[in-house]
Amino acid sequence: MNSVEDWAFILKNRVLRNGKAVINYHVYSSLWSSIKQEVTTVLDNSCWKVGSGCSIDLWTDSWCGNALAETLNIPPNVIIWLPLKVSDIIQNLQWHIPPYLANLFPILPNLVQQVVLPIEPLPDVLVWSGNDNGLLSLKDAYNFKRNHFPVLSWAKVIWCNDVPPSRSLLAWRIMLDKLPTDDKLMDRGCCLPSMCSLCKIHSETLFHLFFECDFSFGLWRWLATSLNLVLQFQSMEDIWSLCDRARNSFNQCFVCHLGNHTKALSSGTITDFSMLKAFMVTVHPPKPMSLKEIIWQPPPPQWIKCNTYGASNPVASACGGIFRNSNADFLCGFASKIDMASALCAELCGFMTAIEIAEARGWRNLWIESDSMLVVNAYKYSNLVSWSLTNRWFNCLKLVGSVNPSIGLFIVREVLA
Ligand SMILES: [Zn+2]
């Protein structure tokens, strides 16, 4: 929506008026009509990155989470009496919420303060909220619109380089119940007497053939004894839950099954070693871990060193840092929780917090060490930074920039032992 490329310019002007309103007449074209239908979807999944605030409707546009009218439950007949644009609550590049608005909506200041304003005038930008760079590419649009099927946990185990394709195909057909066993053929109308070719007693079904038949059961029992496991199968999926419970033994079993055709490494435990030896498989031991001792070094006199760190998992993210001077004295530390961030965002937040604290405390020579190479790269190439952090990021770079910097910055990658 904010692209300056010719194709984006043509598309926008064909279906939008004044950059926002969708044309209200029918276009006699399958292509343009389809694009027109999707404009609402694009706008619903975009949000504004605040610059001057002149282009953003204060209550109806998304710029600090959902639209404020929706969050604060403000009816349209009340909105017309309130300030219209976001620029109406910005003064001298700072948030300035009129007292009557703060009284009317007590949580408004908290919501607004979460948005970082740029410290120099910038235009407002409408960004696609589904990715980090804020640009809606054809690939993003395709991924957004296509059907998302559930990811099968066992698919990666079957389809991997170490398994011959013929075995992968067989396992895949078993899991999807697509093998042409007698019961399947009868379902399709073939009239035939069915008999299991292994035990010659029961009729042939997929589950009987692989799990219930005395012959198959004997094989499973032998495997269970070899792996020291208790095996019980009620359905096909049970085999993969068993893999999860005894992942190591089963992976080794997998390696055993593939024999010497695989180059997969063993885990290095004595259990795996003895199992592989029992199956007469050549052991590929893992590379030994090399340990390197790294000792923290104090910064030069007059400099403050900050070691920052960020971490993220699917549930929570956080960043932290410790400031020390040239005598290695602890000056201060910080740790903060971040909502829904990637590992890079967490590392960048640690970096930015360090600069903001140095600015607040008047420390002029700051040496930052981060264990993330991406942070060091983001300092050189700002396009690596997610659009949601760019205002804060550019504010920090302004403090340490080449023109009138208030902080001298030296950033290095810390090598962890
Ligand atoms: Zn049988």
From TrEMBL:
InterPro entries: RNase_H-like, RNase_H-like_dom_plant, RNaseH-like_sf, RNaseH_domain, RNaseH_sf, RVT-Znf. CDD domains: RNase_H_like. One of its GO terms (molecular function) is RNA-DNA hybrid ribonuclease activity. It holds the Pfam family zf-RVT. Gene3D superfamilies: Ribonuclease H-like superfamily/Ribonuclease H (3.30.420.10). Residues 137-220 form the Reverse transcriptase zinc-binding domain. SUPFAM superfamilies: Ribonuclease H-like. Residues 312-380 form the RNase H type-1 domain. It comes from the Eukaryota. Transmembrane segments: none annotated. This is RNase H type-1 domain-containing protein. The lineage of its organism: Eukaryota, Viridiplantae, Streptophyta, Embryophyta, Tracheophyta.
